[in-house]
Amino acid sequence: MEREQVLAKLRERIVRFAASHLSRDAAEDLAQEVLLLLHEKYAHLERVEDLLPLSLQIVRFKIMSQRRKSVRRGEYTQVSISDIQLPDLDANPAEYVERKQMLERLARAMSGLGERCRELMRLKLQGKAFPEIQKIMGVAAINTIYTWDHRCRKNLLEAMGGSWEPPER
Q1: pLDDT of 1
Q2: What is the chain's mean pLDDT, rounded?
Q3: Are 160 and 109 in contact (CB under 8 A)?
């Protein structure tokens, strides 16, 4: 038999074997990879009796490799997007009022803090790290910034009535 015919029959067998474990498209791709590997590394083999067991063993290894990769990537535990319940992002009037009241409480409490605390909070809200705040405020030791931050947060909490949550009515 001619090598082309041998490879065509071999491809059929590989695809059928792989399709019994994977989808048809994946089996086609896998067969192509196996044939390429046979061509590159095992060109010296000519007979079907030699190529068939070798090719099926290569397919088994590639299937196992794909499964390990899927597990590693978490593809087996993925949830379909249609099964996920997404929150309603439309404006909720109650949440809007609660948030507005919280911001008003926070603004009142912040206005009662000292200048240094307001500046420290402003810098933190801008996303500055403590070493950056240290340089901006011209402080020699970073521990001073940590102490100021602790005291400012404590004072802010006291100004908010001892709780971040609004007082119950």
Answers
A1: 55
A2: 86
A3: yes
Residue with tokens 């420290």: 120
* Fold of the 105-159 domain: Arc Repressor Mutant, subunit A (1.10.10)
How many residues appear in the chain? 169
How far apart are the C-alpha atoms of 163 and 32, rounded to whole Å? Answer: 66
DSSP string, the chain: --HHHHHHHHHHHHHHHHHTTS-HHHHHHHHHHHHHHHHHH-TT---HHHHHHHHHHHHHHHHHHHHHHHHHHT-TT---GGGS-----SPPHHHHHHHHHHHHHHHHHHHTS-HHHHHHHHHHHTT--HHHHHHHHT-S-HHHHHHHHHHHHHHHHHHTTS-SSPPP-
When mean pLDDT is compared across 34-38, 44-48, 110-114, the lowest value belongs to 44-48
Kindly list the domain boundaries of the chain, sorted by start residue: 3-75, 105-159
What digits encode the pLDDT tens for the residues 82-118? Answer: 778 777 777 778 888 888 888 898 888 999 899 999 9
Measure the CA dihedral 24/29/32/38, to 10°: -100
For the cut 60, the answer to whether the pLDDT of residue 14 exceeds it is yes
AA identity, residue 99: R
